[in-house]
Amino acid sequence: MGNVQRPEYDSTPSPSVEEPDWMSNLDDKTSLAELSIVGTNHSVGLTGGDAVQTQAWTLDKQLRAGVRAIDIHVRHHYDDLVIYVGNVSQSQTYKEVEDTCIEFLKENPSEFILLSVQKDIEELEPHARTYYNEIKFRADQQAMYYWKNSGMPTVGQVRGRIVLIGNLACGIPGQYIISSPEISCPTLFQLQSSWNAQKQHLSQRFPKSNVRNTIVSASSPGVFPYSAARNLNEWFMNDMALFEMPLGLIWFNFPGTALINKIIRLNSFCKN
What we know:
This is Phosphatidylinositol-specific phospholipase C X domain-containing protein. Pfam families: PI-PLC-X. GO terms for molecular function: phosphoric diester hydrolase activity. Helix 1 (about 60-65) links the parallel strand 1 and strand 2 (about 70-75). This protein is α/β, with parallel strands linked by helices. Strands 1, 2, 3, 4, 5, 6, 7, 8 and 9 form a nine-stranded mixed β-sheet that branches. The chain has one domain (about 35-265): Phosphatidylinositol (PI) phosphodiesterase (TIM Barrel, Alpha-Beta Barrel). The protein is built from seven helices and nine strands, in the order E-H-E-E-E-H-E-H-H-E-E-H-E-H-E-H. The radius of gyration is 18 Å and the shape is globular. Helix 1 (about 60-65) runs parallel beside helix 2.
């Protein structure tokens, strides 16, 4: 993979620019459905080699760079939620991700963090709580740092909080989210045609009450995450002027700081 730092792609250990409090310029009355927000796919996928690794920056560095949507895939292991990328454990738990998010929010109370938690496989080990109840338990334990309602909130309602995404204990339910098709890429030669489907999704106009959800990342046995990201991130940045606004949630592997900042600036219309 190597250490490569480009405007749209970055596999170096640290971002070149930080945007820790960019949400301070958003109007409190703005609906989250009106925003364009950078997310990272498999956000703590830092280990496992080139075939598995999805990010180069730690979660704290991603948040400081301006990323505000986090994605983790978990397996339930003896009343803990352990994070995996494929079959590779990332040696991190839901609680560790939660702790990092809370510390960031304490330092930057103007911000909020969207958190997507996906169940990786059926659990094999015994546990006292179901996956759903485990998430609810964590949110109840740190209630002041979660948005405990359900629906589509405004910025002012969620500052300083974690907002769960999907059909979980609270947060933004799946009915508000319109997702793109997954990118299929058995080989790099087929990546362009899959990107064309993502472009179509990004160019469509959706109801104002819904959030567009677009995954701009891919991997397969024949295509490593970083190889796909080098192409997809560049194509996304080059084609941004063609897309319908707002962009909603856009999930990347190895995003560069110029790409992140360009998406952040799309929210300038929301400033007080």
